[in-house]
Design a protein that fits this description.
It contains 8 helices and 4 strands; from the N terminus they run βαββαβαααααα. With 220 residues, it is α+β, with helices and mostly antiparallel strands. α1 runs antiparallel to α2 and α3 packs across α6.
């Protein structure tokens, strides 16, 4: 079975990329970014997802999130995409598609990849940007959207807060490591060691079988 199809498992973090339709702008002024973040927080709360990192750019959105329900990520993304599309079309008198139909995502082994993926995501934007979690994760600026993962909180020592240790950690990752993350994301491929990928494959196969059983038992 191909690993490319989306599979979401509660408690397993995902790196997510949602591109604008035909790479057209999806944000125009500050209020558009603010509206998206407000809707993202509402959707994350409603569908039991925690946001650990984000980056909003003019043509795309990247998120690092952990779902705690089976369909949490897909429901969150569908909701925020719908609401942000309505906002943009209503604000600017449009009737256009705003987002590509499908987002890309990579489930990841938190122990090996969560902090690395946070660093990767935030490295793609301006560290001073208002529309990035970097200000929270590297400088401890308050951000109501962010719910720090336990691995991030665990970086703190008696001598240094988590933000300082995290900032130093990000400097240790190489361009090749970040490139590998980007390639996996483009393929919807899981990020982890062989044991993680084997378990992911087993869970994905079981999920497919459950869906097949439901389909077989449906009455039309």
């Amino acid at each position: 079975m191909s690993l490319k199809r989306h599979h979401t498992f509660p408690g397993v973090p995902q790196l997510i990329l949602q591109r604008a339709y035909q790479q057209s702008p999806c944000f125009f002024v500050d209020r558009d970014y603010e509206y998206y973040l407000d809707e993202l927080k509402r959707a994350a709360d409603e569908f039991n997802c925690q946001i650990h990192a984000y980056l909003l750019q003019q043509h795309q959105v990247m998120l690092l999130a952990t779902p705690y329900s089976q369909d949490g990520i897909s429901q969150m993304m569908q909701t925020v995409n719908r609401e942000s599309t309505h906002h943009i079309n209503q604000t600017y008198g449009r009737a256009d598609t705003l987002w590509e139909g499908a987002y890309l995502s990579s489930s990841l082994d938190a122990e090996s990849y969560l902090l690395k993926c946070m660093c990767y995501l935030e490295s793609l934007g301006d560290p001073q940007s208002t529309w990035s979690s970097s200000a929270h994760n590297t400088r401890m600026q308050a951000d109501a959207l962010i719910q720090p993962h336990g691995l991030y909180n665990g970086l703190a020592t008696d001598d240094a807060p988590a933000a300082s240790v995290y900032t130093a950690l990000c400097e240790t990752f190489t361009a090749d490591e970040f490139e590998a993350i980007g390639k996996a994301l483009e393929l919807d491929y899981p990020l982890g060691n062989d044991a993680f990928r084997a378990r992911y494959e087993m869970l994905a196969q079981n999920s497919e079988k459950e869906l097949e059983c439901v389909s077989c038992n449906m009455v039309y």
